[in-house]
Structure formats: structure tokens, C-alpha cells
Amino acid sequence: MTKNGVQGDTVTLMPADTGTAADAVRDPYDPHDPYDPYVSLTGWGRTAPTTALLVRPRSYEETAEAVRGAGPRGSIARGLGRAYGDAAQNAGGSVLDMTALDRIHAIDADGGVVACDAGVSLHRLMEVLVPLGWFVPVTPGTRYVTVGGAIGGDIHGGNHQVSGSFARHVLSLELLTADGEIRTVLPGTPLFDATAGGLGLTGVVLSATVRLHPVATSLMTVDTERAGDLDDLLARLTAANPATGRPYRYAVARIDLLARGSALGRSVLMRAEHAPLEALEALPARARRRPLAFRPARLPATPAHLPSGLLGRAAVGLLNGVWYRGAPRRRTGELQRLSAFFHPLDGVPRWNRVYGRQGFVQYQFVVGDGQEEALRRIVERVARRGFPSFLAVLKRFGEADPGWLSFPAAGWALALDLPAGLTGAGSFLDELDEDVAAAGGRVNLAKDARLRPELLAAMYPKLAEFRALRAALDPGAVFTSDLSRRLDL
Amino acid sequence: MKDAFGIPQSLLILGGTSEIGLATARRLIARRTRTVWLAGRPSPALDTAADRLRTLGAEVRTVPFDALDPGSHAEVLGKVFTEGDIDMVLLAFGILGDQAHDEADPPAAVRVAQTNYTGAVSAGLVCAGALQIQGHGSLVVLSSVAGERARRTDFIYGSSKAGLDAFAQGLGDAMLGTGVQVMIVRPGFVRSPRTAGRPETPLATTPEAVAAAIELGLRRRSETVWVPGALRPVMSALRHLPRPVFRRLPV
Hints:
- The structure holds 2 protein chains of 2 kinds.
- Chain A is of the alpha+beta class.
- In chain A, 24% of the residues lie in helices and 22% in strands.
- Chain A contains 15 helices and 19 strands.
- Chain B is of the alpha/beta class.
- The chains are: A alpha+beta, B alpha/beta.
């Protein structure tokens, strides 16, 4: 039995890299053949691998051809693979690696607008735009997401309260739909609202025009403080910046979910603004010469094949404690580079390997304003259970975004990572789902790898509209992912 | 689709009245599984098993399946796969036979071999092919420690499981990179109505324990699971004992 036995049955596509010299010497029984277009894919969490034909289109025409030629198991677009769960996997079908569509078409350096292909990463945009005095409107905890992925997951950042999600800043996008046509989609239309946060299930985003945020420097002025418990934290997250009288532009709290009792919810709160030019006066002349320089540092990549269980209870308890006690009680006006403030983990390439081969699950939920008690119950539950959650982040969200499956809603959002190898983690998260749904909250689908489909409709009230639009636009379910199969989207 | 913890949403059990198969189904239904197919020879026992699983909240369907009729496997099992993805196939059928009787009745011995080995080869290949087209799924094969080293007291059964085990190992290697996981489960003596009255060997286990080990193996994406886990070092040692010594062991 050859491993490419699926070829004749499901696929009429040609992989993008056919015709290489290596084809002549390919061994059909070699599981490590680097030219095999059938590849095992996972999300960033490295759980639930499935195999698909990976196609890397280099033009809109090649993309359209790949979509038109998709087999019975359909096709889904994939960017840089930063979605934690199975949103950009398609078992037995094809996966379109969009990163070859990486052109920036136009930049309006006066008005602050960029038009680019969907495969352009936010990292690339920052490299080009920051020196021109512009920053992306919204950035998640990593720069290594594509513009297409940012729209499909309708990503948010620490500035959600002020700026909303990414799709709010998209002025228009071009969408390749199941019929092979390319449509220009404008905000305010049903197709736009289904596509923003639509996990690639309405079509393939080919390009987008995005409004930018002006910056005077590539530095951030960061106020760091400790919050001793959850009440303290929530109060501080609500407070305005004393310097401006308005809410901080960016605010995130790293919360120690292993702390219990009176320390329950103890956190390090980081709030920041883009540094104005005057803020640089304290720096030495050399550092002031290029205020808009963007030069993120990177360490060597995390080694492959680390054992599972490195981040166990004891290690995480220790690290969380050191993190909390090592943080200043209160420090204001610290200057940090953009990359250091927004994307500290991007400095460690492939950090997801630290969880070992069993991978990890990121669980993110939001509960509304007024549901602080529900939030407290969940934090208590996690602390009592003592699961080692190293990277828990609490944010305050502003108004919900228009995307039908967009995650944010006004309230409190907590994200936590759990090793997938933990005994009982699955049923524990199921219990949290119940709490979240009962509080009128929802979990983030772009990060999900384990939600039960029954809870989906309660969490996303526009689900029926989404399904109806998809049924009309894509009756043959050309755009299908492991996530859409699992959750019956 | 399986979730991040390897729990399937749909399950096909070949050998729908198997104690281990049903214990596994009960365990998985409590976690995620919503669709269960029970494949087996039509019988009141099969219908009862289906009804019991229904009360747990799963959608259960039965499909007529006979391990001794390999010619029908492609059609019967193919039909199941056309109704939707199967996230996990549990190859749970098998018969113990009666060693003392079967030694004097070669056709009965052959029936054990045909059920446990050739029937499983056929069904295993059909399911592996279907899973490969899906690009995902687990094929869980119930082997036995009896196949690890032949014993005087059950070598007919043991040899059939040895064949199945070797087949499943090779199939697992063939499936590498296809998204299909082949997991071999090697339980020791399993206490169940089927084994009632038979002499128990040390490190005996229960269908529920095997089910728990299968769930753990799915989460870890294991290739081999021993139940109980202590059997792995024990069998590793027994496998290397010289035959004159092994023969004298009271097992």
C-alpha cells in the first residue's frame, strides 16, 4: 500500500512544486520524502495531526485553479500555522499554503493605508511600515500571522478596548469564493461579516486593504505594576491612564493561575502607549538617531523532540512565582521596543515545541461585563485543580465586533495554555465550557481544538446565519477544515 | 474529527458484542463520541448492546459483519465510510477457541485462525484504506500477550494473535505519514463472561481497564499499549527465556 493511495481518488490538483529534479528519484515508500506533497499538519498547539495535499499557489490564478480543482474533501487556506487548533487543516483534502502570495501592492504613507496580498505577514508589514511611521492597527502575541489569517481569525490584541478587532480596520478585501470567482468585499455587507472571523470557510482571502495606526517612534512607554489579587486586577484594568485621562491604548495582564487563597488572581499588569518622540529625550544620542528603527532580536530555535512534561506543575509554579516577584511593584514610563512589548515569544522561534510531542491546548474564553463572579469562579476552579498553566493572559475587551463568528465581546477574556498530555485536562475544559456558556460567554474558535459542537450555537448566536450564508455561497462545501468538520460549522 | 486529546467523535467497532469494544465505547461516549457503528453478526446480543449504548446518548447503528466472510468486507465496511468520517475503528472481534478440543478438531482450530487472523487482515486493510482516503483516523487493533510468546495451553489462539500483531505492526509502518494511526493493544488475561471458568494468569485485567488504556493511548498517539503496563517488561523478559525454562513456568 503506498502512502499516496489517495491520489487518484480525491485529488486532481497539481502540487506547486512538481517538475523538480527530485521527482525522478522519489521513493513512494519513504515516509520522510521532502518532496511528498501529502503532509501531516497540525496547528501551533501540535495536537491532532491530519494529512492533506499541501499546495502553494503563487498567483491568484493558481489559487483559483486549486480551488476549482479541489476534490470531494475540499480545500482550506493556511497562513503561517499560528492558529492553535485545527482551523487550517483539512484531512484528506487540500490545504492552500498562502505564504507565496506575499506582495505589498501599495502604501499610502500620508493617509496610513496599505494594500497587500493575504500571505503577507504582520512581521513583514512592520518591517516595511514602522520606518514610515505606521503600525498595524491590531497585533496579537505574535507577528508571524498573515493578513489573511488575521481576517479569518478576526484577531484581537491588547488594544481591543480602544481599537476592536483586526477586521474593523479592513477597508476592503478580495475573496476567492467556491465558484472560482474573485469578489471585492466591503465592510458592512453580510459576506464581509461572515468572512471576518469566518475561519476561511467563506473563501480564500487573496488581498486586503488595511488602515494603519500612526506612530512617532518604534518604542513603547510601558507602565508595569503588580496586582495582588483578582479584584485588584479587574479594578486596575478598568482604570484610565493617569497621564492622559483616557484608557491605555494597550493593556494586558499576565495572571498566575496557580496562586490560591488571598493571592488568587495575582498578576503582572502591563499597560502601554506608543512612545511619542519627546519620550526619547532620556535616551543617549545614538539611540535617538533612528527613532523608527524596527530590529527585533531572535534567539536560536527551540530544539525538536523535547520530552513532554517539562512544564509540569512544579516548574510552572516556580516560573510563575519568579515572574510575579521579579516584576516591579510599580514602574512607569519604561521604554520598550515594539517586539519586546508585543511579541516576546517571537524571540524564541518554535517555542511551541517546549510542550513535547503531545503538544498543548490554548483555551481562551470571554465573559461579559457584569460576569466578574463567573470569571472568579473559573479562575478559582483552575487554581484549585492546580493544572500548570504557564501563559495565562487576562484582557479587557471593548464592544463586540461585527464578524458573525468573531470572538471578542465586551467583557473579560482569559487565555491559558495546558499541556495536552495532562490527565483529566479534556474533561476539565469541558466543565469550563459549561461555566462559560452559562455566563453567556464563548470560547475562541481560532484557538479551539476540543470544543463540543453542542455548545456552539449558545456561544455564537449568529451561527445559523453563518451556516445559511455558507450553504448558499458554497453548497458543495468546497471550503472545509478539520475544525468545520469537528464543530459541524 | 478527533479532538486535541485524541477522543473520536465517531467510532466503528468490528465485533460489536466484544466486552472490551463496548467498554471502550461507553468510555468514549462519556467524553465526546456521538456516532457509534457496531459491526457484527446480527443477533439479539448485538441489538441489546446497541440499545445500551443508545441510553448513554449516542447515535448507534448496527451493520452485519462476518469476519469469516472476507469477500463481503469491502462492501459492508465501505458503506459505513460513505455515511461520514469514522474517526476510530476498533478491531475487537476474535474467538478464544477451546485449545484441548481444537487440537483434536483441526477445522475448529482453523476457524480460530481465520477469525482472528485472516478476517482481521481483510477488515484491517479495508478500514486502513478508507481511513487513508479520509486523511485521519485511528485503527485500534486488539492483540494479546498470548501472541507475544506461544504457550502450550493456548498456542492456537496465541499463534493467530501473533499473526495479527505482526500484521498490525507492518500496517502501522505503512500508514506512517498518511494521518492514520495504527495502535496495537496487548492486554493480558481479561476477566469477562467470555473467559469465565478459564484459569486466570497473573496480571489479569478488565475490559474497563483496557478501555482506559485505549483512551490514554489515543491521547498519547501511542503505537503499542500494554494492559496493564507492567506486562511490557514482564513479556520482554519472558520472550527471551530459553524454551526449556519457559515450558516449565506455571503460566
